[in-house]
Amino acid sequence: MPGRPNGDSGDRGTGTGVVTRTRQKTKKPSLYRVLILNDDYTPMEFVVHVLERFFGKPHEEAVTIMLHVHRHGVGICGVYTFEVAETKVTQVIELARRHQHPLQCTMEKE
Ligand code: TYC
Q1: CB 82 within 8 A of CB 32
Q2: Ligand 1: does its nearest atom lie under 6 Å from the Cβ of 47?
Q3: Is the CB of residue 37 below 6 angstroms from any atom belonging to ligand 1?
């Protein structure tokens, strides 16, 4: 990242500097995978409902993801910026808790 980051070409306060920066500065936010974990007790239909409600999955895709998790132990619900991912994890865990299901959900940096 050469030069001065805010376009100050370095006139040391004399007011004679020329602003040369055209653009730069925006950084893409880090992304996080939201993962859902298998367990022996949460009903399959509940997991499908969670994937539809919080992750906007169409029914068929929700079933596919749920079965993947059922067979492999873990699956990806979606990829989001940090606060969105955190909110979705909280929403899933809270709904599962209210229904007394042990369903767990977590997030990891991509
Ligand atoms: N293994 C559960 C069952 O047999 C179904 C299930 C699927 C649970 C996915 C959690 O993330 C999960 N009822």
Answers
A1: yes
A2: yes
A3: yes
Residue 81, SS3? Answer: strand
User: 100: which DSSP letter?
Assistant: T
Kind and range of the H or E run holding 85: helix 82-98
Q: Compute how many other C-beta atoms are within 10 angstroms of the C-beta atom of residue 51.
A: 25
* Tens digit of each residue's pLDDT (9 = 90 or more) over 73-109: 999 999 999 999 999 999 999 999 999 999 999 999 9
**Residue pair 57/65 in contact by the 8 Å Cβ criterion:** yes
Q: Is 32 helix (H, G, I), strand (E, B) or coil?
A: strand
Handedness of CA 81, 82, 84, 85 (dihedral sign): positive
Answer whether 103 contacts ligand 1 (Cβ < 6 A): yes
pTM for the model stands at: 0.81
State how far the alpha carbon of 46 is from the alpha carbons of 42, 49, 88, 99, 103, in Å.
7, 5, 16, 9, 9
